[in-house]
């Protein structure tokens, strides 16, 4: 597994709000994660979250975008090797310029054969915290291309988007651009970065993105992990948090539940590095 990036990657990420990292996972790791994810999906069945939200046919357009199941690590232990992985979280921290990253949630995003496009959105609109350093890694478990559901990003959108989106615009793929304040994105050209299995992209929580229709008879399988910088505070949105935890939370509280949102990577302080003889 790769655990380092270079300054060029960081500069690209800061400029555009996303970056492609080749061969994050070895072929063996990719196949292992894919097998874990498929086993976790079988076990999860119709529940979007481990504890709630049984999916029905109430929103057929959305349901045909992808099979989306969140927080697989909570009820399928083997996938923790990847969700709690310090190497992937370290890259996320370095791109974001923060010292420590907590896992927000992992997720399976499987686009079935002939699936609908994923509508334009940005992840931070859903999250329970507002920070410009939130980040998502999207790992290709099968090749991902413009013709089979590849991700598209709006370059630079993370620098201007704010945390004010009330709801997911679900009428059509560009429904977001119908909302006040988003219309100018309709004129912009997005970028699709094709990925081989094992490659990934990291994108900022405020980067506008979506994915294409799957015009093939094969599944496009992606695994995602969203990270929250340590120190982020509650903004009042429930998102993936369980009800019993939400009951005790107030807006402004430090989100520091180590069971739900463990720290996957923390940069050692100067003193600790000296003791351990690290060069980093
Ligand atoms: O896989 C997809 O189609 C969408 C993924 C996505 O929106 C995300 O990773 O935030």
Write the topology of this structure.
Layout: H1 7-16, E1 18-21, H2 27-44, H3 60-63, E2 67-70, H4 72-75, H5 80-83, H6 86-96, E3 100-111, E4 118-121, E5 135-140, E6 151-153, E7 191-192, E8 200-204, E9 209-211, E10 220-229, H7 243-246, E11 263-266, H8 270-276
Antiparallel strand pairs: 1-8, 2-3, 3-10, 3-11, 4-9, 5-8, 5-10, 6-7, 6-9
This protein binds 2-oxoglutaric acid (AKG).
List keywords for this structure.
Phytanoyl-CoA dioxygenase, alpha+beta, oxidoreductase, iron ion binding, Phytyl_CoA_dOase-like, 280 residues, seven-stranded antiparallel sheet, binds 2-oxoglutaric acid, dioxygenase, single chain
Instruction: Provide the residue-averaged pLDDT.
Output: 92
| Helical run tally | 8
How many domain regions?
Answer: 1
Q: Give the helix level as a range of percent.
A: 10-25%
What is the string of SSEs from the N terminus onward? HEHHEHHHEEEEEEEEHEH
Q: What is the second-level CATH architecture? A: Sandwich
Structural class: alpha+beta
Sequence stretches where pLDDT stays below 50 over 5 or more residues: none
Q: Tell me the name of the CATH homologous superfamily.
A: q2cbj1_9rhob like domain
What is the level 1 CATH name? Mainly Beta
What is the 3D shape?
globular
Account of the protein in words:
This is Phytanoyl-CoA dioxygenase. With 280 residues, this protein is α+β, with helices and mostly antiparallel strands. It has eight helices and eleven strands. It has helices at residues 7-16, 27-44, 60-63, 72-75, 80-83, 86-96, 243-246, 270-276, and strands spanning 18-21, 67-70, 100-111, 118-121, 135-140, 151-153, 191-192, 200-204, 209-211, 220-229, 263-266. The strands form two sheets. Strands 1, 2, 3, 5, 8, 10 and 11 form a seven-stranded antiparallel sheet that branches. A four-stranded antiparallel sheet has the order 4-9-6-7, with no helix packed on it. Bound molecules: 2-oxoglutaric acid. Residues 66, 109, 111, 118, 123, 136, 138, 149, 209, 211, 222, 224 line the site of 2-oxoglutaric acid.
């Amino acid at each position: 597994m790769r655990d380092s990036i270079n300054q060029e990657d960081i500069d690209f990420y800061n400029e555009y709000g996303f970056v492609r990292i080749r061969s994050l996972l070895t072929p063996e790791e990719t196949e292992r994660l894919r097998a874990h994810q498929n086993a976790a999906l079988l076990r999860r069945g119709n529940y979007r979250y481990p504890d709630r939200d049984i999916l029905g046919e109430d929103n057929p357009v959305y349901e045909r975008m992808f099979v989306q199941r969140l927080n697989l690590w909570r009820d399928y232990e083997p996938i923790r090797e990847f969700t709690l992985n310090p190497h992937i979280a370290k890259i996320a921290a370095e791109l974001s310029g923060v010292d420590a990253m907590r896992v927000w949630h992992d997720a399976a995003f499987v686009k079935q054969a002939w699936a609908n496009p994923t509508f334009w959105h940005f992840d931070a609109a859903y999250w329970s915290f507002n920070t410009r350093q939130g980040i998502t890694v999207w790992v290709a478990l099968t090749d991902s291309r413009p013709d089979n559901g590849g991700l598209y990003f709006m370059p630079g959108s993370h620098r201007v988007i704010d945390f004010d989106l009330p709801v997911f615009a679900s009428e059509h793929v560009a429904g977001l651009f119908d909302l006040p304040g988003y219309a100018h994105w309709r004129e912009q050209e997005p970028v699709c970065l094709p990925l081989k299995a094992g490659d990934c992209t990291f994108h900022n929580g405020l980067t506008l993105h979506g994915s294409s229709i799957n015009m093939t008879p094969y599944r496009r399988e992606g695994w995602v992990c969203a990270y929250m910088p340590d120190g982020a505070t509650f903004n009042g949105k429930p998102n993936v948090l369980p009800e019993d935890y939400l009951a005790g939370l107030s807006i402004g509280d430090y989100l520091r539940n180590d069971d739900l949102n463990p720290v996957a990577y923390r940069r050692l302080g100067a003193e600790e590095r000296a003791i351990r003889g690290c060069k980093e």
